[in-house]
UniProtKB/TrEMBL annotation:
It is found in: Cytoplasm. Belongs to the methyltransferase superfamily. L-isoaspartyl/D-aspartyl protein methyltransferase family. PANTHER family: PROTEIN-L-ISOASPARTATE O-METHYLTRANSFERASE, PROTEIN-L-ISOASPARTATE(D-ASPARTATE) O-METHYLTRANSFERASE. Keywords: Cytoplasm, Methyltransferase, S-adenosyl-L-methionine, Transferase. Catalyzes the methyl esterification of L-isoaspartyl residues in peptides and proteins that result from spontaneous decomposition of normal L-aspartyl and L-asparaginyl residues. It plays a role in the repair and/or degradation of damaged proteins. CDD domains: AdoMet_MTases. It catalyses: [protein]-L-isoaspartate + S-adenosyl-L-methionine = [protein]-L-isoaspartate alpha-methyl ester + S-adenosyl-L-homocysteine. The active site is at residue 64. InterPro entries: PCMT (IPR000682), SAM-dependent_MTases_sf (IPR029063). Its EC number is 2.1.1.77. This is Protein-L-isoaspartate O-methyltransferase.
Amino acid sequence: MKDTYRHQGKRQQLVKTVKKKGIADEKVLAAIGKIPRHLFMDSSFEDHAYQDKAFPIAADQTISQPYTVAFQTELLEVKKGDKVLEIGTGSGYQTAVLCELGAKVYSIERQRELYKKTKSFLSKIGYRPKYLSFGDGYKGLPDYAPFDKIIVTAGAPEVPKDLLGQLKVGGRMVIPVGTDVQTMNLFIRKSPKEFDKKEFGAFRFVPLLEDKN
Ligand code: SAH
């Protein structure tokens, strides 16, 4: 598991690309510049790791496009010490970005194979999320709620009510909503009963799936 000068050089190019596409948050850019994305992917895709593209990982899933990861993270406005819930651990790349920003990360993955693989991989490369859970993200993590921030990294046909309910007042949730194409939604909880909603551009995610049981 090497991170060579060549990898580092390509990574700085990726940071420039993402910046050009409109990402301005320096902390987010620094995280992209630091995390060895090639290690989160199958070695057969290693040569492409620093292209601004999504790639296949295990269990028919994908590692999100770096621009998308940066866009969602920027909208989330993560502060050091924030308690953040992520739905869709996948490769763990987004988890690592949140850890770099100093968040206490709780993440849920419904594919057992990915859950296991990513759990051991993240600890191997030194990332320590607070809690990785195997289960259905639609339900969130009621035992650990409320959260300052919630990020959903799979396309949700509709907004899961349980997740909105696990957001602190003042908290933010970023979620791509739609079936074939998704619109990025930002929810800000104004009071126990009131949410502000803003919509951003179109993205393509793998689907947020209902529990197998
Ligand atoms: N954050 C990941 C993106 C992975 S793609 C990364 O940076 O690599 C989305 C992930 O969401 C997939 O791993 C998929 O298995 C997972 N997923 C889909 N539906 C889910 C659900 N209901 N609960 C938890 N995870 C889910």
